[in-house]
Design brief:
mainly beta, 12 strands, five-stranded antiparallel β-sheet, Rieske Iron-sulfur Protein, about 130 residues, about 50% strand
Length: about 130
């Protein structure tokens, strides 16, 4: 597996994200409550740039005029047709068989590394977008 370093953790503050290019793949790197997650910037429905969609949460049962969120700021919604995906896992909220690819993220010496592929050991640097 290769670790592709895409920037510094300090460059993606909590609650934000950045899209990076890694070996020809567009990947969104999200900081959710101090933890970093990476998903493919591609909606499996019709190929929209998934990371251009809003980041939101789910609604839990609550009283009238009361809004209680579950998975707050952990869901990305496709900008074209509204399909929703869990940023932490890549799984869709509507069908357990539909997902976008997620990638392991490593933080080493303050740098964000995305793990891609097999049998590669040399760390490489990716270009930011």
């Amino acid at each position: 597996m290769a670790v592709h370093y895409v920037g510094n953790a300090a460059d993606i503050p909590e609650g934000s994200f950045r899209t990076v290019d890694v070996s020809g793949r567009s990947i969104g790197v999200y900081n959710i409550k101090g933890e970093y997650y990476a998903i493919h910037n591609y909606c499996p429905h019709q190929g929209a740039k998934l990371c251009k969609g809003p980041v939101c949460g789910t609604m839990l049962a609550s009283d009238v005029y009361e809004y209680i969120y579950g998975k707050d700021r952990e869901i990305v919604r496709c900008p074209w047709h509204g399909w929703e995906f869990d940023i932490k896992t890549g799984k869709s909220l509507f069908d357990g068989k539909v997902r976008t690819r997620s990638y392991p993220v490593r933080i080493e010496e303050g740098r964000i590394g995305i793990v891609i592929g097999r049998n590669e050991e040399e760390p490489v640097t990716a270009d930011k977008k």
